[in-house]
Amino acid sequence: MKIAFHGAARTVTGSKHLITLKNGIKILLDCGMFQGMGKDTLTLNSSFGFDPMSVDFLVLSHAHIDHSGLIPKLVKDGFQGKIFATPATKELAEILLEDSATIQRDDTRFINKRRAKQGLPPYEPLYDLEDAADASALFEPVHYGEWKTITPGVELLYTDAGHIIGSAAVHLRIKEDGKETSITFSGDVGRYNDVILRSPEVFPQADYIILESTYGNKLHDDVKGTPDTLLQWITHTCLEKKGKLIIPAFSVGRTQELLYALNQLELEHRLPAIPIYVDSPLSREATEMLKKYPQYFNRRIRKVMETDSDPFDFKGLKFIKTVDESKYLNELPQPCIIISASGMADAGRVKHHIMNNISDQKNTILMVGYCEPHSLGGRLMNGEKVVKIFGEFYNVVAEVGQMRSMSAHGDYDDLCQFIACQLPGEVKTLFLVHGEYDVQQDFASRLRRKGFKEVVIPAMHEEVELL
To answer: Per the omega criterion (within 30 degrees of 0), is the bond before 359 cis?
Structure first.
């Protein structure tokens, strides 16, 4: 048996790990899109490093685009197998992949207008809406806690990873030549004190573990202080500077956390009377979908819902639907809050909002999650004074802020707690993925001190034989 790492290898996005059994069956864990990799992004997304037609099954950990975003291209390029996912992930992925195809279509049109004026050839999107629909037809739901035989000799179990709604750690039991091998893939691990979701579940002992490491050398700020910190940014930007507070936020997970924090401020009569816009049709759909799965919420938010039936809605909130409404926000002279996707500010409507507001010192761009260093959000967080947006250069005059308490990824304490259910001596190899290389090296040292003797950081497209 072999495993090859074709994405999220010494980098954070593009999750793809291909298991090849001795009988030739190939199982792909995730099929994510690379995001925020600068000029290399398109090249990385254009080639899988393997033949899509050779893959028999796809097991999806969760719906975030860096884990699911290339599924339509996989299907477009010949994959015809089943795609396994939890029911919530299936529903959410269908929405996200359609949105991804729409964003590619719209951004490609915008970019190609400029390229045409420069005499440059047009870009082609990775896939279209029809490809996304074809991919959605291949999904098959698998519930948490139920072992499912996906092919003779291979069983699949999902356990709650607590990252976003429907997110799961993947567990495979593979029988070959009379021997059983257990492989666990963490997907993305959530936080044990998440404001909305349940904590990650314990899982069976594994022979091999593929573990994410996004924050493998960091500790997060306490999430309990999020409403207060958010209020400070609102007061500073909207009341004192009389500007716009622009918050790039992923439509799934981060936007709902922001709405929940703002709702808390409103319930406590501390939220200023300032218009709050969520400029992402996907965010509205995702928020409504989230409400359909209250069984995945933690006890604290379920307690809140006993007196507040909708903890994601409050006075002054408006969801923006049309492109014309989105453009109108850039013309508003008065202070307001704009929450818009994507979280790394590398695509979607928020990129336009930043472009139109980055040159005014009254405004603030507030980053509330992880950004790849080469993404627009990453470059802003790194303090660059000039950034390129849609082919044009802009001076960074607006204030750039950061809130570290809102990450949906666990820090190193959370990750260590996640694998605390394992006997380190029985884990043959622990592979670190979904992290920057220097972070992974620090985390690997920590894991070795905890008794995991064989900790490997695979390189892109590296293939490893599992003994």
So the answer is: no
